[in-house]
Amino acid sequence: MELTVKNIKGSDTKKKVNLSDSIFGIEPNDHAIYLDVKQYLANQRQGTSKAKERAEVTGSTKKIKKQKGTGTARAGSIKSPVFKGGGTIFGPRPRNYSFKLNKKLKALARKSALSYKAKNGGLSIIEDFTFDAPKTKEFKSILENLKVNDKKSLIVLSDLNKNIYLSSRNLKNTKVVTASGLSTYDLMNASNILLSEGSLESIQTLLS
C-alpha cells in the first residue's frame, strides 16, 4: 500500500511511502485484538477495593440474646452479616488483575489494528515536526489543517517530544504517543491514526 505524505498544513507533499503488507496489510485477527485490549484495561485496574468481613469487624463477641423463647431466629454475634454494621459476605479483596500475553500475540494484535485502520482509510502519514515551546493553539491548528480536530486522533512520534506532548495534553480527543509505546487499545480507540515519517520506520522495525 502506498500513501502520500502530508505536511502540517494539510497539503500533500511530493513524497510517498510504501507500507509493508506484513504489518499494514494482514488479515486482522480479532481475538488477538480482544486479548491485548483486555490485558491493557486489566492492567489499569488498581485492585485495591476492600470490604471488612465478619472476622475483621470490631464488635463484642457476647451473645446478644438468649437462644430460645424470643420468637425470632438465633443470633450469636453482633458482627453477623445480617445485622447493620456487621461484616460483608464475599466482599471485594485486594487483587492483581493483570495477566500475561506472549510478545508474538501482542505484535499480531498491533498489526491487526494497523491493518484495520489502513483498510478503512483511518491512517495518514505526516512529516516530522517539532515545537520550540508548548503551543496548544498551534497544535490545534495543525489538527484543523489535517481535518481531524473533531475526531479522536492518535499521533505517533518516533521519539518523545516534550513540547508536542504538552501542547496536546489539554485537548480532549487527541493523544500523542511514541512508536515504542504504541498499544492496540490506543489504535482501536482512535478514529484517525497520524504516523510521523520517523515513527513509521520505527513501527516497521519493531513489528517486522
Automatic annotation (TrEMBL):
One MF annotation (Gene Ontology) recorded for this entry: rRNA binding
SUPFAM superfamilies in the cross-refs: Ribosomal protein L4
Keywords: Ribonucleoprotein, Ribosomal protein, RNA-binding, rRNA-binding
Record Gene3D superfamilies: 3.40.1370.10
Domain of life the protein comes from: Bacteria
Pfam family, one: Ribosomal_L4
Biological-process GO terms, alphabetical: translation
GO CC term, one of those recorded: ribonucleoprotein complex
Region of interest: Disordered: 46-77
InterPro entries, per the entry: Ribosomal_uL4, Ribosomal_uL4-like, Ribosomal_uL4_dom_sf
Function, in words: Forms part of the polypeptide exit tunnel.
UniProt subunit comment: Part of the 50S ribosomal subunit.
Membership in a protein family: Belongs to the universal ribosomal protein uL4 family.
Annotated protein name in UniProt: Large ribosomal subunit protein uL4
Species whose genome carries this gene: Acidiluteibacter ferrifornacis
